[in-house]
Specification:
The complex is a heterodimer of chains A (about 270) and B (about 300).
Chain A lengths: L6 H9 L3 E10 L2 E11 L4 E5 L6 H8 L7 E6 L2 E2 L2 E4 L2 E4 L2 H8 L2 E4 L11 H13 L3 H14 L15 H13 L5 E5 L7 H16 L3 E5 L3 H7 L2 E6 L2 E6 L1 H6 L4 H10 L1
Parallel strand pairs in A: 3-10, 3-11, 8-9, 9-10
Antiparallel strand pairs in A: 1-2, 1-4, 4-5, 6-7, 11-12
Helix pairs in contact in A: 4-5, 4-6, 5-6, 6-7
Chain B lengths: L1 H7 L20 H23 L6 H6 L2 H33 L3 H16 L2 H9 L7 E3 L5 E3 H4 L2 H27 L2 H9 L4 H31 L11 H12 L2 H30 L11 H18 L1
Antiparallel strand pairs in B: 1-2
The chains are: A alpha/beta (about 270), B mainly alpha (about 300).
């Protein structure tokens, strides 16, 4: 990872979408949640997923790092199949350890933060680099301090999650995901569980992250954020992509009737 | 604050505030009556024991007898080792029980069903007599011996107590593991942690908060249950006390002595449990209440500071 790829390789990589979905289906028992999703996320892009609850946005996001197994279709991250290996025309399921290896490069931020409550903020951030990547504690701590500073919480490093507000917990969670140096960040309604006054701090951190060139897939109800920061936007309803395009375009000039009725309710 | 205080009144008069409620409190006569009755009963029991034909003098005479102390040591050893077997076995069984593999989870279920469903005294006796089934123990090149030589009283006692305990600990551990939010596992997996690491680093430390209190109960129970192992010829506190009682002609007195020792040991264990619980509670509440010892120290320092100001 540390060595610089050659320019031709970079150019080639530019063409490979960070996420590519082709006809992705997902069912929970008899309930079909995703009914054939096709989309592409370019590297460096901020890709927003909006839609009513139950439309399958979060499920799709969870498929990207294989927290959910898809039932049909194909899903690639950075040119590699998610959860499977293809040999000829046969698919082989990946071992747990191989799935874990791929997840290292994909950061995820949850609606309910899911910080480890028995660890302080800084311990949360250094846990994965130390345990998964084998980085030395001192080195990880140094990096964690930088990351906590970046999310504006350098002074809270020694606090346990229960001693932090929701917004602070979510920013620690972002720092924790960034500590693994991911090439892709997934945000699952990161501000939905927050008090309105705390939403801004988290969005500021995400905006800063977007400006640094991080590829981000964001499931959100924050239309303002989608409009200002987003590069692409997809409106999902009932397990399908209804409309997609540039956020400003879709949000101000929705073509589809379902998009219009949804936006008239949330905007 | 100081401004308003000064404005509120001339020196000597208390600051004007809302008038405190002055009312005659309700008298709870029932409480006085029940307290008197309880104390009277207690006094009657103590009196009865003091008048009984018990030679109380024998208790202190033998309290630190070397046989008693050996017994105490062996009781503690049995408790600790059996609990280690029980806890390790319990964790393994709990993980097996929660595993997606139907074979391992059924085996764990069966184990728990069997060992929880039969009395530990019966299990001990069965272990003791297992030589009727197995004449030799043969672990290939590692170990080979006659069963009766291999199955010492200590090993019988440990297996009997430990394997039985594992069944109970399995259910306690399973409850603890299930109590940890699924989001924790997801977050750990999303960071690229393996199943094992997630379990060790994230889930088990959080499960411990739920596991420790009932485990403390189990340790105390185990300490008392060790008194059963005299049936497999392993001498411990109760057995030694019985022996001394028979030889010295003060059998009942020695039972009281043993009871006192058991009480002392369980009390010490309760204190240990308190501190272990505090350790695993870290991060769970905003600030932990001070320990009794910290309270005592805090009082000492406030006393000294009062002296300084006085």
């Amino acid at each position: 990872m540390s060595e610089q790829p050659s320019t031709t390789e970079t150019a080639r990589k530019r063409d490979v979408p960070m996420v590519r979905a082709e006809g992705v289906h997902k069912s929970f028992g008899p309930v079909e949640v995703l009914k054939g999703i096709d989309l592409e996320v370019r590297p460096g892009e901020v890709f927003c997923l909006i839609g009513p609850s139950g439309s399958g946005k979060s499920t799709f996001l969870r498929c990207i790092n294989h927290l959910e197994k898809i039932n049909a279709g194909r899903l690639w991250v950075d040119g590699e199949l998610v959860g499977y290996r293809q040999k000829g025309d046969r698919l082989y399921e990946l071992k747990d350890s191989e799935v874990a290896l791929k997840r290292r490069d994909i950061g995820m931020v949850f609606q309910r933060f899911n910080l480890f409550p028995h660890m302080t903020a800084v311990e949360n951030v250094i846990e994965a680099p130390v345990q998964v990547k084998g980085v030395s504690r001192a080195q990880a701590r140094e990096r964690a301090t930088q990351l906590l500073e970046r999310v504006g919480l350098a002074d809270k490093a020694g606090n346990y999650p229960s001693q932090l507000s929701g917004g602070q917990q979510q920013r620690v969670a972002i720092a924790r995901a960034l500590a693994m140096d991911p090439k892709l960040m997934l945000f699952d309604e990161p501000t939905s569980a927050l008090d309105p006054e705390l939403v801004g701090d988290v969005l500021d951190v995400m905006r800063d992250l977007a400006e640094s060139g991080m590829t981000m897939v964001v499931v959100t109800h924050e239309m303002g954020f989608a409009r200002e920061v987003g590069d692409s936007l997809v409106f999902m309803d009932d397990g399908v992509v209804v409309e997609s395009g540039h956020p400003r375009e879709v949000l101000t000039n929705p073509r589809h009737e379902r998009t219009q009725s949804f936006l008239s309710k949330v905007l | 604050m100081t401004d308003t205080d000064k404005a509120a009144g001339t020196p000597g008069t208390p600051p004007a505030g809302p008038e405190a409620v002055k009312a005659i409190p309700v008298r709870h006569y029932g409480r006085y009556v029940s307290a008197v009755v309880a104390l009277a009963l207690l006094a009657a029991i103590v009196y009865a024991f003091s008048q009984g034909k018990i030679n109380w003098g024998a208790v202190p005479d033998y309290f630190f007898d070397h046989r008693i102390l050996t017994g105490v040591g062996k009781t503690l050893l049995l408790t600790v080792l059996s609990m280690v077997i029980g806890i390790v076995g319990g964790i393994v069984l709990a993980v097996m029980r929660l595993s997606k593999n139907p074979v391992t989870s059924s085996i764990a279920w069966f184990y728990i069903w069997f060992f929880r469903g039969t009395p530990v005294l019966v299990q001990l006796v069965v272990w003791f007599n297992l030589g009727l089934v197995f004449q030799y123990i043969n672990l290939g090149p590692l170990y080979k011996d006659e069963w009766s030589d291999f199955m010492t009283p200590l090993l019988t006692a440990l297996l009997g107590l430990g394997l039985n305990e594992a069944a109970y600990m399995a259910e306690i551990c399973r409850a603890g593991l299930l109590a940890v939010d699924e989001g924790q596992t997801e977050a750990a997996h999303a960071l690229g942690m393996s199943h094992g690491k997630t379990l060790r680093r994230i889930v088990i430390p959080q499960a411990m908060r739920v596991i420790v209190p009932p485990t403390g109960n189990e340790v105390i129970n185990m300490l008392k249950t060790t008194s059963l192992v005299s049936v497999v010829q392993y001498p411990e506190l109760f057995r030694y006390a019985q022996d001394i009682g028979q030889n010295s002609g003060a059998p009942v007195e020695m039972y009281f002595l043993a009871a006192a020792w058991y009480l002392i040991m369980t009390s010490v264990l309760s204190v240990g449990q308190y501190y272990v619980e505090r350790y695993y509670a870290r991060g769970s509440s905003r600030s932990l209440p001070p320990t009794p010892w910290q309270k005592v120290r805090a009082h000492l320092t406030t006393f000294s500071s009062r002296k300084v100001t006085a």
